Amino acid sequence: MFFTQDIFSQGPPPWAPAHGYRAKTRHIYFPEQNMYYDLQKGVYIYYDNGNWQVNVNLPTIFGSVNLGTTRQVQLDYYGNDPQQYNADHVSKYKPGKKAKKKSKKKKKK
């Protein structure tokens, strides 16, 4: 699935968080792909051939990925270069790691 610049001119991609979150979130991190999406600039930031690349189109190496169903992490970072913290993101949001759900303990009567 590829997104064109025409889609971005009409707003964020369909997989982007709901409108209320867009105001609070600037970068989405995709742990399985080790890739970022900058909601403000409308660009993907990804590592390829030893360098970080920036592109308005989904990188061809991720062309078969459905970003609407893959795990997304809304980062609490508002600068221009989320990739500078990539080592921390890779460690914290390991690929394949599921988010922990809070379990409700039943009270004994």
Strand content: 15-25%
Classify the secondary structure makeup into a structural class: alpha+beta
| Shape designation | globular
Q: Number of helix segments? A: 3
Could you list the spans in which at least 5 consecutive residues all have pLDDT below 50?
A: 1-9
* Helical proportion, percent range: 10-25%
Spatial order of the strands forming the largest sheet: 4-3-2-1-5
How confident overall, as mean pLDDT? 80
Topology:
Layout: H1 5-9, H2 19-22, E1 27-30, E2 35-38, E3 43-48, E4 51-55, E5 73-74, H3 86-92
Structural write-up:
The chain is an alpha+beta fold and 109 residues long. It has a domain at 22-92. 15% of the residues lie in helices and 19% in strands. The protein has helices at residues 5-9, 19-22, 86-92; strands at residues 27-30, 35-38, 43-48, 51-55, 73-74. The chain has a five-stranded antiparallel beta sheet with strand order 4-3-2-1-5, with no helix packed on it. A hairpin with a 4-residue loop joins strand 2 and strand 3 (43-48). The longest helix has 7 residues, at 86-92. The protein is globular. The termini are far apart. Mean pLDDT is 80; it is low at 1-9.
